[in-house]
Design brief:
62 residues
């Protein structure tokens, strides 16, 4: 299972690492995704949820 938020779908982003001499090389920006035990419809399961969804209360934790 990939590290993608199960609530909002947030995942990795790609961009460039820029050095002091302004050279650009590709890099990845990882989302702040935590593995959390979640209650959905009375069933407890562990899913990946991003920090923004956890802080805003979009998820009910077990």
């Amino acid at each position: 299972m990939s590290r993608v938020c199960s609530v909002c779908g947030k995942a990795k982003l790609s961009g460039n690492k820029v050095s002091h001499s302004n050279r650009k090389t590709p890099r990845l920006y990882n989302a702040n995704v935590q593995k959390v035990r979640v209650v959905k419809g009375g069933v407890v399961s562990s899913e990946y949820v991003c920090a923004r969804c956890l802080k805003s209360g979009k998820v009910e934790r077990a």
